[in-house]
Amino acid sequence: MSTVTYKEASCLALAEEMRRDPTVWTLGEDVGDGGVFGQYTGLRDEFGPDRVVSTPISEATIMGAAVGAAMVGTRPVVELRFADFALCAMDEMVNQAAKARYMFGGQTRVPVVIRQPIGMWRSSAAQHSQSLESWYVHTPGFVVLAPGTPADNHGLLKSAIRCDDPVIFMEHKDSWDVEGEIPDGGDKTVPIGKAKIIRPGEDLTIVTWSGAVQVALQAAEAAAGKGVSVEIVDLRSLWPWDKEAVFQSVEKTRRLVVLHEAVKVCGFGAEVAATVSETMGDRLATPVRRLGAPRIPIPYAPPLENLCRVRVADVMTTVEEMGV
Amino acid sequence: MSTVTYKEASCLALAEEMRRDPTVWTLGEDVGDGGVFGQYTGLRDEFGPDRVVSTPISEATIMGAAVGAAMVGTRPVVELRFADFALCAMDEMVNQAAKARYMFGGQTRVPVVIRQPIGMWRSSAAQHSQSLESWYVHTPGFVVLAPGTPADNHGLLKSAIRCDDPVIFMEHKDSWDVEGEIPDGGDKTVPIGKAKIIRPGEDLTIVTWSGAVQVALQAAEAAAGKGVSVEIVDLRSLWPWDKEAVFQSVEKTRRLVVLHEAVKVCGFGAEVAATVSETMGDRLATPVRRLGAPRIPIPYAPPLENLCRVRVADVMTTVEEMGV
Amino acid sequence: MSTSSPPETGGPTVSAQRVRALFATMCRIRAFEEAAERAAKEGLITGAAHLSIGQEATAAGVCGNLRTSDLITSTHRGHGHTIAKGASADAMMRELFGRAGGTSDGKGGSMHIADFSVGMLGANGIVAAGIPIAAGAAQAKRLLGEDAVVACFFGDGAVNRGPFLEGLNWARIYDLPVLFVCEDNRYAARTRTGAMTGGPGPAARAESLGVPAHPIDGNDVMAVDALAGQLVEEMRAGGGPQFIHAKTYRQKGHTVADPGTWRPAEEIAQFLEHDPMTIARQFLIDAGAGPADLDAIVADAQQEMADAYDSAAAAPWPDDGLAATDVQDIGGPA
Amino acid sequence: MSTSSPPETGGPTVSAQRVRALFATMCRIRAFEEAAERAAKEGLITGAAHLSIGQEATAAGVCGNLRTSDLITSTHRGHGHTIAKGASADAMMRELFGRAGGTSDGKGGSMHIADFSVGMLGANGIVAAGIPIAAGAAQAKRLLGEDAVVACFFGDGAVNRGPFLEGLNWARIYDLPVLFVCEDNRYAARTRTGAMTGGPGPAARAESLGVPAHPIDGNDVMAVDALAGQLVEEMRAGGGPQFIHAKTYRQKGHTVADPGTWRPAEEIAQFLEHDPMTIARQFLIDAGAGPADLDAIVADAQQEMADAYDSAAAAPWPDDGLAATDVQDIGGPA
Ligand SMILES: Cc1ncc(C[n+]2csc(CCOP(=O)(O)OP(=O)(O)O)c2C)c(N)n1
Ligand SMILES: Cc1ncc(C[n+]2csc(CCOP(=O)(O)OP(=O)(O)O)c2C)c(N)n1
Ligand SMILES: [Mg+2]
Ligand SMILES: [Mg+2]
Fold first, then answer.
1. Cα separation of A203 and A254, whole Å?
2. What is the CA radius of gyration of chain A?
3. Which of A297, C96, C138, D197 could be disulfide-bonded to B102 (CB atoms 3.0-4.6 Å)?
4. Measured between alpha carbons, how far is C36 from C252 in angstroms, rounded to an integer?
């Protein structure tokens, strides 16, 4: 095991996969210079400018070119910088990447990894803070991953690159500097579709992912101080998502909170809540609760931005209301 | 009252609003020639090419220009032809139209109506059949409307044009020729945010909208034949949605099915189901059920396309499973 | 056609034998689409179908210079390109009918016609979407160390969409062997593109992006063949992107459902006279071909497509199970 | 500046008095951004801030020819444009600090700086997004029967995004009075735009879209003023869109967090010498202005911005309640 940051973990994963498979390459603005967050540092030196391709500001074509490149046998890792800019490439993502295999009757596959960092981070405001994972979960064809730890960023990025499906890969900008351990050797992947119980508990389940994992951990600690034992399920994969793990946990705790940073309304939490309510409604001690951002664009001023975050206190209030 | 088609209803509504308010205008591909579905027929003759503006195939700029035009005091009605093409204008819709008022601290408003027809229709296949309403409901800043009848298409389009918020206006392509009555005189609007009970019932509530309204009506008829009394709530407005109407109906029937054409996973049905489960879970006789499309791109061949539709039989099975 | 030899070099003269082959391809395209038109009118084709009748020379002339290992991207109006690149007409017709044995199992239809086995990377329901895809395919082929030229077809309406600029710029800065082919049939749906296109037009735009542009009569298959042959040769020798502005005409309406009669009658008449089939036929007659020989080519094509029609009409629907296959490997359709 | 009189006609000569006013605007922009830079380093500006130090002449020279009723759109690097168009520096600084009294109540920050009351329709966090917005604003003004010229600022990186083509084409075909101003500072973030831009560059692209293009030294405020004056005059007289390719240099890094020292030292040095402030100052000295007078202009500007800094630093955070206002009229934030 080595201790690395979330950012370094992804850089290592990409380098390992590029060494392993010469058809893996990456493209995006400034990636040759290490990328806007430094998550591509050193890659051009090792792999050269044809495999670490700095591009013009042409999101539609970054994505569209990756589709063509994936169709003919390479594995592009697309860097879109901020999930918000992905909106400039939405046709290429949704109408092309996600649908090509199906609408061409399986004649082709589009093994492309689409990195688009999400989340609130240092007053990034309305156009640089969105978390739109639920859009992609709604879209047939996509695998959707949202790692919350360095180890998962490492292992899931590797799985994403090896996956034959187009993968939406959402890192959280606020996690870049979070440290954690990753396995040595570079051959360990994290399986797509498997959740992880990152804290076992008995009284209540929190299902969460990405940056909100940190909030959940703090809330669980606070709850423990009040005698409430919280189990945290970090989904990591949003599509497919690990229903079994969630059902199992809720079967035990009979209380579920879904916690995410994205807007609550029509967030992926709605899918989890609706599914659990539908499937095991009669075994729930109390209805499933959701916590997410209010339905407002993200404001700039730090105290206003903070109001869009789910805070530990919000989780605690909800836990109390659920009568644990 | 006059009898008109769904398509004619929208054309009348737009003409009436353009007569009433000289700042209303419309832009999009081929609108000067009546629009691809004929829903702009005759408008250029009456209002001229400066208010019924045929455009190049430039979705991003159709939408972006409308944002600029709305900011300075006009009310553009944007025609995007198929909701799928809206993906080519996603930045302009989401990062610009929906956020401008907020991120500029209320200095401006963006009163634009964004027409983007949805739904399966005559083998339109993967790139011409999507129903992405849940994306827009998830996006702060938007009003989202999905009329299911000629009267609602008429009255809601008028309300949308008068609304100061950006409105996503989703007509269903399969409804263009559906006939119905609309009020004469042209001053009647349908309020945004109000659902309509289109069939009263006692045993079970179906919440639905857009093209699926027809399926719900047929299913209710079939259920009546089996002695089950179904109440149908046509939401019409998806954001804001009429929670009170839904709660009231479910309070009475204690059973809820949410039925829509869009993909079930992360569809707007998840939001309705999660909200109802959360709010009135203990008053439900049985968990809320959702019916929507499987998570696959829409295929071309008619029998395969049909497999993506929720059919009356599916509704009936669900109703039975809910133990009515 | 897709494996035919490169054109004569040294001048615009092309051999009659070569033109005969191109003519045959054009006849097959025309006959395919006439059969498709009939089928659509009879309700056998349920989705939208866009006919390229009148535009066959571009498809034939460009694809005649490509190898099977070369690639093309296409548009909503893609039957001609697909046939010219070497796809089976029978499988294509089944696809249009939405039947088993279609190129895409009936899951795509006319607007998503494709045959990856012959390097045809797909028609596209989104105007201009093929442009970035073509650029990326060329870039990937180079990365893989495989030689391939990519021909990228699009219409005159597509030059007003952003991906046109982005994709041509991309091909230029990475110096990719992409042959951009703008089939300028004067209309985008019901709109005259002249009124919607600022400046001197598609060729000037390409040049401004550093892509050398070549205007040409797109209805003259000899001219298209000679030009494409030369450009493809340059690209095989390591040259960067090239642009053909092929002036042509859509003899039919926008889709099979549109009679297209809203256009000026004189314009239609003028172009019916300047039909690519007539031009190629005249060339062959002048070069000594016998009318009976040419009629036989036409008849063969018509027979092939009548058979394709019958085969498609008799074919079963795709198996229901196919609806849920090829969505993705990981994560079921539920 | 935004209400100043049009420039002298009949030649490139501009009056010293006019240049003095432009110089004053430039000094205010420079001082504002130096104060902002300081604030960012001190942690008082929490979000990204992009400085236009070195590019002041374009903002001042273009906006100096606009009326308050004229409009501009801007980019992520928008402080200069906003000041030149007449916004209050005090309110702007508060916005950068995210404080009460900011131009957008602290809800937008530097990247969304805007002052609609003076026709400044907003900076934009999305490269090239202002281009279609500018076109639409011009179109709407015409529909309303109101005279207005729209100046649309964007960088050399923006010419590779699709909306560049779409928006310029749009302005051309509808003949809209939009003055496109490409501020070419050689870089897009850390990437040299030369390597990413196929063909002869921004001006050729504009010309290919039918928009007359004018390359110019963007650091020479006299030249920018004269050119913009002439073009704006033409547009007021009913002319269509125009394009200025202003060559300039970003003296600082991409954001305040980037020292920008990864660029060639000689290049930086060369442009520090070709500083727009120095050029304007020299012109004024040559025209007889006293150094003390000019120093006073600088000092005034610095004082104004020091005050703005203090005012912003002392201002309270926006009221929590503001987080939920101005989302939309119908449908709460819940
Ligand atoms: C992005 C997008 N916008 C609009 C359409 C609708 N549409 C389909 S074909 C077409 C006209 C295209 O014109 P052109 O590119 O000249 O091709 P042609 O039909 O003439 O072959 C339009 C507007 C679409 N498919 N995609
Ligand atoms: C669509 C989009 N892509 C990428 C970015 C990230 N980004 C912000 S500024 C910038 C560079 C822009 O370069 P240029 O247009 O030359 O403007 P400059 O920064 O030089 O003023 C980039 C890539 C963005 N904001 N929007
Ligand atoms: Mg055309
Ligand atoms: Mg720049």
1. 7
2. 19
3. A297
4. 13
Sorted by where each starts, the structural domains of chain B and their CATH numbers stand as 2-182 (3.40.50.970), 196-321 (3.40.50.920)
Provide φ and ψ at C67, rounded to 5°: -90, 165
Q: What is the DSSP letter of A244?
A: H
**Ligand 1 contacts CB of residue C189 (under 6 A):** yes
Q: Is residue D5 over pLDDT 70?
A: no
Strands B24-28 and D150-155: unpaired
Return d(Cα B100, Cα C263) in angstroms, integer. 42
C156 lines ligand 1 (CB under 6 A): yes
Token pair 């929507």: residue: B292
Cα A248 from chain centroid (whole Å): 22
Alpha helices in chain B, H assignment, sequence order: 6-20, 43-47, 59-71, 90, 100-103, 133-137, 150-162, 212-225, 243-253, 268-280, 302-307, 312-321
Integer Cα distance of B202 and B183 in angstroms: 29
> Any idea which fold C16-288+302-312 has?
Rossmann fold (3.40.50)
Helix boundaries (H) for B265-311:
268-280, 302-307
- CA B190 vs CA B58, B155, B157, B296: distances in Å: 32, 4, 8, 34
For β-strands B167-169 and B196-199, DSSP reports them as: unpaired
Taking contacts as CB-CB distances below 8 angstroms, the residues of chain D near B56 are 166, 169-170, 173
Residues of chain A neighbouring C73 (CB-CB closer than 8 A)? 68
> Quick one: pLDDT at residue D3?
38
Ligand 2 pocket at CB < 6 A: A 29, 57, 59, 81, 85, 88; D 75-77, 125-127, 155-158, 185, 187-189, 193, 250
Per-domain residue ranges for chain D? 16-288+302-312
Residue C177, pLDDT score: 98
DSSP label at residue A266:
T
Find the helix or strand (DSSP H, E) in which C57 lies: helix C56-63
DSSP state, residue C50: -
Which residue among A27, A31, A57 has the greatest number of ligand 2 atoms within 8 angstroms of its CB, and so is best to mutate?
Answer: A57
* Cis-peptide into A240, omega within 30 deg: yes
Nearest-5° Cα angle at A123, A118 to A129: 20
**Residue D297: phi, psi to the nearest 5?**
-60, -45
How many residues comprise chain B? 324
| A239 has a chain B CB within 8 A of its CB | yes
**Angle at B84 (CA atoms; ends B80, B86), nearest 5 degrees:** 45
Q: Chain A: give the shortest CA distance to residue B147, in Å.
A: 20
| pLDDT score, position C2 | 37
Residue A260 known to be catalytic: no
pLDDT at D7 > cutoff 70:
no
CA–CA distance, A76 with A91 (Å, rounded to integer): 18
A267 touches chain B (CB under 8 A): yes
Low-confidence ranges of chain C (pLDDT < 50): 1-12
Query: How far away, in angstroms, is D244 Cα from ligand 4 center?
Result: 14
- Whether the pLDDT of residue D13 is over 80: the answer is no
Alpha-carbon distance D114 to D112, whole Å? 6
pLDDT of residue B187: 87
